[in-house]
Amino acid sequence: MESPESAGLPVEHSRDILLGRLELALDASGIGSFDWHLATDELIWDDRLCRLFGVDPDTFGRRIASFYDGLHPADRDRVRSLIEHAIDEVGEYQAEYRVVRPDGETRWVEARGRVFADADGHAERLIGVAADFTDRHRTWQRQQDAARAEWERAALITAVTRALAEALTLKDVTQVLTGTLRNAIGASALGVVLMEADRLRVIDAVGYDPLVVADFDGVTLTDPRPLAEAVRTRAPLFAGDADEFAARWPGAAEVGGSAWAYLPMIAGGRPVGGFAVRWDEPQPFTSDDRTLLVALGGLAAQSFERARLYDAEHELAAGLQRVMLPRRTDGIRGVSTACRYLPSTDGLQVGGDWYDVIALPSGHIGLVVGDVEGHTAHAAAVMGQLRIGVRAYAAEGHRPEEVMARTNRLLVDLETRLLATCCYVTLDPATGDGVVVRAGHPPPLVVRANGGVELVEVAGGLILGVQDAEYRPMPVHIGPGDALVLVTDGLIESPGHTIDAGLRALAELAAAGAGESAEHLADRIVAPVGPAGHRFDDVAVVVARRDLGDESRIDEARHAIARGAQGAIGRSRAFVARTLTKWGFGETVVEQAVLCASELVTNAIRHGEGLVELALIRYPDRVRLVVEDDSPRPPRVVKVPATSTGGRGLDVVARLSVAWGSEARGTGKIVWAEFTK
């Protein structure tokens, strides 16, 4: 194509043609131009640029301030800085910014320009063009949003998968769903149900009305509500808003919320349960959203199945261990004993540590602590066999060193390939004389009533499980008020700390409790490692304190309570009142003890299993109330709202008694409280 000049046209006419073509090109592309005279601050916009900013060319202010006024407030300082930099450098100007039109619409603009200098080289004019690229920016933004959403979905799956992989128990898995997952997807409520026979049991629900949860708990799969339908049909169900919910389930009703999802949990081709999710805002539920939630339901199902197996194995091992540990460790005149057992917080939380207190035929007392290696059901089973062996050999009247030797042969004959350590002490309550035998176990401590602490230097024999091992006895003596402390290595050994350092720390801790009762000293000793602390190993503690002359028990009375029997609480109260009155305690002590007995027996009946036993032990200066049940769960004081009508039982016990505590006993526990005259 020929240029106007080559066609022989006049120069002025050629310039007009070129300008005309430029105008057509700018019109077609929507590009506007500007010319800012710096000295006069006159800003010239063509009609296209005025249309882009949504201003009238006749009323446009023609000043740079008018341009800045049209920018989005968040972009003004940045654009001003770019313009000033271009002027200072007499160079190029380029910027992307948002324009807010008078009607409120926001558009994205891309501008380019150049600063021209006068004859002296000073900046004189800024000339450039600007174009609307809103559509292109929106496309880019959608791509960014999609990429971000994909990344967030991947991060969510990773976080939930990691949390589920670390969850061991049913409670752990449920907490991942109601906590981690619910927060990650922005849901206001999430409830989890599991299959039990042909019914759905609610195991946790966060954000739902308790009455709604209670009404749903235990429904059959034929229930018409959507969560039951999702589990029954094994198909996920979604309702993005209230209208969609009403159209799909006209006979159902949801309290609160604006969007819902009901996800079945399928494992091994069968339904494990499901979970319901609720949002307070309508949800689009795109195909990606649905795929994500369904995938999370599958992960949860697998985790619940694994957790069920873990819980079953843990319960089996823990039950075995509880059965093998002694049920009662008191009742020997002249000596007060207290035992504590805390399982490792790793693995199955069971293991091979054991303890025992044995009333010997000679009238002496036998104290035992031992540790079978490992934290498995096998270790717990071997522990039970060794405990029974020690008890049987001791009851036959064998000397301590012979008891240990026979126990060693028993472990060798069992061919378990497990090793064990043990410390066995016999003590005469009347004289305080005793004998200590060790099989690779930490030595015991003597805590003197005056505050001194002594490590019993005992020649340690070989650990149990070694053929033809021999053991030597070492004498020990404790005076009135002194205490003998036996522990397993879980209390004194941990990563980064040696047993020697642990024994020194134990000695300092025990010295602080010198003169205290056996119960209080035992609590002081285990306080640093439990029950809430992390434990790398099991912990077993036996404290035997020789009573002072005025501490020996004078009398004891017991009352058995059959679970479910009518009037059980009333008969327990009457037993306490009758016994304490007979023993000569005043009206105030009787009332306090009766009220505490009522609370403790009520808790034992409500949370335990089998028989509940109530005991009163009389000392010269006090009486101890003891309630024993078959539940291994320790009691816990909880904070309750002022308007609550329950939950204050242990708080009442703590306020009315001079001291109270609990102790694991075989398959269950005891909870005790003391009252002074």
UniProtKB/TrEMBL annotation:
Signal sequence interval, chain numbering: none
Boundaries of every PAS domain copy: 45-90
Q: Which CDD domains match?
A: HATPase_RsbW-like (cd16936), PAS (cd00130)
Task: Identify the keywords attached in UniProt to this record, alphabetized.
Answer: Hydrolase
PAC domain boundaries: 93-145
The protein's matches in Pfam families, at most eight in alphabetical order, are given as: GAF_2 (PF13185), HATPase_c_2 (PF13581), PAS_3 (PF08447), SpoIIE (PF07228)
* Record-given protein name: PAS domain S-box-containing protein
Per the UniProt record, the source organism is: Cryptosporangium japonicum
